[in-house]
Amino acid sequence: MRIIANHGQKKKYHHERIGVNSRLDTMQAAILNVKLKYLGEYERKRNEVANYYDRHLKGITIPVRVENSTHVFHQYTIKVRKRDALKEHLASKSIPTMIYYPVPLHHQKAYFQNRSFPVTEQLSKDVLSLPIHTEMTEEQLDYICKSVNEFQ
User: Fold this and answer.
1) Distance from CA of residue 85 to its chain's centroid?
2) How many domains does the chain have?
3) What is the pTM of this model?
4) Residue 132 pLDDT exceeds 80
């Protein structure tokens, strides 16, 4: 049951069976209940951070925004060549990054398909998520953007 409640995974990003996200305990639920009042403010602040990244990152593929739609930027994921080298470069400057979903879905045991999905396979090698949260300062954002841009 623990595996099923944790997206069907024993090890992070390795799904052995189909599962659900059922990890919310009572304490987290109580905190989130209070934070819901500020959801609009959190969304606005995350969009400000994303807009800053959009304006200041150069030579990389940034998230696409569809006209007449909104985004809450749970993650700000860029597409770059030499993703792993950029991740190391940013880590050397104490900038945390994350590689979400490093194993394509069709390569997961729970969903395995013996087919090729070249775009998915390439994206799993090229995408990197930059820090994004509601408390980021312009100084932090500037440091991150300059660090990414100097790597290019």
Assistant:
1) 18
2) 1
3) 0.86
4) yes
- The enclosing H or E element of 45 equals helix 39-56
Could you tell me if 122 and 90 are in contact, meaning their C-beta atoms sit under 8 angstroms apart?
Answer: no
Tokens for 81? 């060549």
- Please check the confidence at residue 60 and state whether its pLDDT lies above 90: yes
Q: How many CB atoms lie within 10 A of CB 41?
A: 10
Q: Tell me the residue range of the domain where 124 lies.
A: 2-151
One-character DSSP codes across 57-110: --SSBPPP--TT-----S-EEEE-TTHHHHHHHHHHTT---B----S-GGGSTT
What is the distance between the alpha carbons of residues 62 and 75, in angstroms, rounded to a whole number? Answer: 12
Q: Under 8 Å CB-to-CB from 108, ≥6 apart: which residues?
A: 14, 15
Give the alpha-carbon dihedral of 49, 52, 57, 61, to 10 degrees: 60
User: Among residues of the chain, what percentage have pLDDT more than 70?
Assistant: 100
Q: Return the CATH number at 132.
A: 3.90.1150.10
